[in-house]
Specification:
Two copies of one chain form a homodimer. Chain A is an alpha+beta fold. The first copy, chain A, folds into two domains: 3-310, 2-Layer Sandwich (BirA Bifunctional Protein, domain 2), CATH 3.30.930; 325-411, Rossmann fold. Chain A has twelve helices and 23 strands. In chain A, the strands form six sheets. Chain A has a five-stranded mixed β-barrel. In chain A, strand 1 (32-36) and strand 2 (39-42) form a beta hairpin. In chain A, helix 1 (21-28) packs across helix 8 (297-307). The two termini of chain A are 22 Å apart. The mean pLDDT of chain A is 96.
Chain lengths: 412, 412
């Protein structure tokens, strides 16, 4: 994409009230726009990152048998009353609204109730199970405090998958495959090395639920890391047992972290309240065993910025970067830059091409702020020799190479 | 996709309160689920149709220079107060909600206000213009009555593009290119032949705005068609001038229609109220000239069903069908059907493969209801001869052909 055609501009400062690094950098780079506290719009470059994250999650959810659907935000109170989650004194983060006839509606903050009710229309026999259904859908949460940029917002896209199984065993097998899929997702996104499977309390239907916590000094959560097992436990668990649930190690290290995903065994809590049953091969009725599995792609994007930045700007991991490289045309190199741009695109590389009429200094500062994994400079000198100056965003080394070598390097 | 892995089931009847053909058929076929009056969830097959429509619109918006972004649903009242569109007595379809500190928020029913405010951060000079920004985003409209299935809902995805131009001339050139893009979109979706450019009243900044109206007996709108020009005028215009605006023909035919898109010249109404200005080459400040351009992919989906169905079910146009063909395995043909399924997929055809353990009659009835453009039957007889029985959904003719010929036919 030609940068001259991108409407967003970078800026030297972020709004004074922003405290978090992710919001400051993403706002300065023009990836997002602040509509109000806790609600950010995604501008073209930010939407590319968000869509890259979504594409990775979608592939891994499909790989474990997920079927994609799209539920509504507007919520009929009825199923929520049956599960006792409608009342604001129980769930304090509802946004509620009204039809013109004054009937009260909610804006979904999660979807266990409507999807359980929906499945009643499609599941009746053991033959209809298991079902794994997921969506990328906008959630609304009336958070009291929002000070962490994309890490905690009042409106955000969530990937939520719900599993419907015939038995606890069938459920547990899927739960394990979801756990593995989550690890793969965070690896592909580029935050896997800092992200730990974390034991959390499990509620009435299982001993544990699990969070995926990315270690990061600016995280809102506290976790306790077992160095031997490379897992963590959260605060609730440490208060109960103060040891690693896997190896019983009691020397756990307290660290700050960001919760980037969570998976829960729901047992029959929702299927019981909403009457979701199936008939087994012997003709006996059972309640369906459920699980839920969430990841917030926007929060993952914010987490990547918290982890990967320096004083000059963002360092996007290559799996989710808006473009694989940023090509800057310097004075005298404009004609050759056009050719380089076309060759890179023909080779299937995604390129942000800075063809703007601004100074080399401004282009380099913007390249550092925007954070593509590779920076390519086409100056008058390199143009003459039909080579390009190449630098990785996270390295100091500058190399000169021909376009074929550049393409090989970008694709490696 | 194997139909045995699809969780949705078809049903013989739709909820009694549904009056519209699109809702009845889409509910029976398991494409959508009714959450409440005017709010439908999209199930896997329905989401495939919706995404096919979205992909066509996105391609054509990108082709005329559109940059995709994603704005929030939650709305700060301030910009809406400045344009005098916050008060319920002026805009009666707001859904409003409150933060926990009682501050009032709105759920966007359109996005002129926030996008104009946003552009103030990125547009200041003539060099920054023109800008064409669009999104696929969920709108909320507190409609009084909703009785037309996907044609009028309280929550729906809308493609809304907003144009920002330096002058009326620059605006008009883009307005014409948007008009042409819309015609292309409706052609590619398969409803172009019934969809007419329709003159509507233009407000204070232009004589006309334009709707795209699909002629259909079950439409909510009335239009007046000029047979010579193949355009229409809407009710407002006929009351003013009772003639075709292009050829002055006064013999206009009254017809029912569904509005599937609309484009408006907004002039400086929003840029004036919200202070969106640019400095020209001579250093003079001007207000930005705006336009807005909407299509509802869900409504387009409902319209396609209203146009293309028979007593047995839906007939999807090939441009938006969930799969290009529906392959049914009949007794004795199961093994060969598997091979046919793989060959079709290898050739790049999208296939819904009915591998379920149900009767041929049930499979054929479902194929008619679900409405893929081609039905392929692999029976014991055709399996023996390594051929397939092929029928178009909208034709009676049954043909027998080998797999190579099938692939050629599907791709033609």
């Amino acid at each position: 994409m030609k940068q001259s055609q991108l409407f967003t501009k970078t800026s030297k400062s972020a709004p004074a009230e922003e405290q978090s690094t992710n919001a400051k950098l993403l706002l300065r780079a023009g990836f997002i726009h602040k509509e109000m506290a806790g609600a950010y719009s995604f501008l073209p470059l930010g939407l590319r990152v968000l869509n890259n994250i979504i594409a990775i999650i979608r592939e891994e959810m499909n790989a474990i048998g997920g079927e994609e659907l799209l539920l509504t935000s507007l919520q009929n109170p009825e199923p929520w009353k049956k599960t006792k989650r409608w009342d604001n004194s129980v769930v304090d983060m509802w946004f509620k609204t009204k039809l013109s006839n004054e009937a009260e509606l909610g804006l979904a903050n999660t979807h266990e109730e409507p999807i359980t009710a929906l499945m009643g229309h499609h599941i009746s026999s053991w033959r209809d199970l298991p079902v794994y259904a997921y969506q990328f859908q906008t959630k609304f949460r009336n958070e009291l405090r929002v000070r962490s940029g994309l890490l905690r917002t009042r409106e955000f896209i969530m990937k939520d998958l719900y599993s419907f199984s015939r038995s606890q065993e069938e459920h547990e097998a899927f739960y394990e495959s979801a756990k593995a899929a989550y690890a793969k997702i965070f690896d592909r996104i580029g935050i896997g090395a800092s992200t730990l499977l974390t034991f959390a309390s499990g509620g009435s239907f299982s001993k544990y639920s699990h969070e995926f916590q990315t270690l990061c000094d600016t995280g809102e959560d506290t976790v306790y890391v077992c160095k031997d097992c490379k897992v963590a436990v959260n605060k609730e668990i440490i208060e109960e047992q103060s040891a690693c649930p896997q190896c019983k190690n009691t020397e756990l290290k307290e660290e700050r972290a960001i919760e980037v995903g969570n998976i829960f065994s729901l047992g029959t809590r929702f299927s019981e309240a909403l009457g979701l049953k199936f008939i087994d091969e012997q003709g006996t009725k059972h309640e369906v065993v459920m699980g839920s599995y969430g990841i917030g792609p926007g929060r993952v994007m914010g987490t990547a910025v918290e982890l990967f930045h320096d004083e000059k700007g963002i360092l996007w991991p290559s799996g989710i970067a808006p473009f694989s490289c940023h090509l800057l045309a310097f004075p005298g190199g404009e004609a050759q830059a056009k050719i380089t741009y076309e060759k890179l695109q023909q080779a299937g590389c995604t390129v942000l091409y800075d063809d703007r009429d601004v100074s080399p200094g401004e282009k380099m500062a913007d390249a550092d702020l925007l954070g593509m994994p590779w920076r390519l400079i086409q100056s008058g000198k390199t143009a003459e020799k039909k080579v390009v100056e190449v630098k990785k965003r996270d390295k100091e080394t500058i190399e000169i190479m021909d376009i074929k070598t550049v393409i090989k390097r970008l694709k490696s």
